[in-house]
Design goal:
The chain is mainly α. It has a domain of 28 residues. Helix content is 38%, strand content 0%. It is built from 1 helix and no strands. The longest helix has 23 residues. 0% of the residues are buried.
Amino acid sequence: MADFPPSRHSDDDGTDPGRPERGPAPGRPRWVNVFLAVLIALVVAFVIMHLAGGGMGGHT
């Protein structure tokens, strides 16, 4: 049986120099971004209502 030549893409330690190491994990999941956007929108609406004088059912 014939021996195969060593791969030109691998080193002695088994690493592949042609492929970069895995980088950092990707950013936040989409649901987290959506949740934060909704939360910020609610806080802004709450602040605007109170500054306009229409918040909390019109207590006097």
